[in-house]
């Protein structure tokens, strides 16, 4: 029997023009657990051209990478609860 689940990831991006900094938060929502959150930042050098999309892409990519590591930690904790010993998951 096949089961299909849908997980949604929402990415919120904030840009601070004065500090030349972009911050992204990636939120994973599932029906089975509380949300998992990853964060990422991008900073623009004063000598770089101002292209907001690049900061958005970098911050979002870093937030998604952080989310992936957070999800690995959640999975490790779930496995530890079942096997009653520490586990290490590599990416």
Verbal overview:
The protein is α+β, with helices and mostly antiparallel strands. Helices cover 35% and strands 29% of the residues. A hairpin with a 6-residue loop joins β2 and β3 (36-43). The mean pLDDT is 92.
Low-confidence regions: none
Structural class: alpha+beta
What's the SSE pattern?
A: EEEH
Strand content: 25-35%
End-to-end separation: 29 Å
Tally of contiguous helical segments: 1
Q: Helical residue percent? A: 25-40%
What is the alpha-carbon Rg in Å? 17 Å
Largest sheet: 3 strands, antiparallel
Oligomer: single chain
Mean pLDDT: 92
Q: State the strand order across the main sheet.
A: 1-2-3
Compute the number of strand runs. Answer: 3
Keywords summarizing the entry:
alpha+beta, 1 helix, 3 strands, 35% helix
